Amino acid sequence: MWDDLVRGAIGAVVLVDTRRLADSFAAIDFFEDRGLPYIVGLNCFDGLLQHRIEDVREAMSIDPNIPIISCDARNRQSTKQTLITLVEHAMHHRMTAGAR
């Protein structure tokens, strides 16, 4: 079903709950295997980030070129900024892939 969902997508946001990191590995592997640009959004509850971004990057072995941002999926402005980050990353990914 995931293949159908991503057909035509410019990228994806993997929304990560830092209390359950292991639940995110399958999604990250899926997007990496297909070469689809993605970013990681660390979902903040009540505006609090439970772990430093670099600690999460290391724990999940996420490439330094993949943006990881904090966000609150319940907050309109935060969600908008997350999507803007995704589009910027996808555009950069497309430009660097074309240069190869």
What would the average pLDDT be, to the nearest integer?
Answer: 89
The amount of beta strand, in percent, is 15-25%
By DSSP (H or I, 4+ residues per run), the number of helices equals: 4
- Order of strands across the main sheet: 1-2-3
Cα-atom Rg, whole angstroms?
Answer: 13 Å
CATH third-tier fold name: Rossmann fold
CATH class: Alpha Beta
For the record, give the distance between the C-alpha atoms at the N and C termini, rounded to a whole number: 31 Å
Largest sheet: 3 strands, parallel
Element-by-element helix/strand order: HEHEHEH
Shape type? globular
Q: What structural category characterises the helix and strand content?
A: alpha/beta
The structural domain count equals 1
Strand tally, please?
Answer: 3
Low-confidence stretches: none
CATH H-level homologous superfamily name = P-loop containing nucleotide triphosphate hydrolases
As a percent range, the share of helical residues equals: 40-55%
Provide an overview of this structure.
This protein is 47% helix and 15% strand. It has a three-stranded parallel beta sheet, with helices on both faces. It has one domain (2-99): P-loop containing nucleotide triphosphate hydrolases (Rossmann fold), CATH 3.40.50. The protein has helices spanning 2-6, 25-34, 53-60, 76-99; strands spanning 12-16, 38-43, 68-71. Strand 1, helix 2 (25-34) and strand 2 (38-43) form a beta-alpha-beta unit. The chain is globular. The protein is α/β, with parallel strands linked by helices. The mean pLDDT is 89.
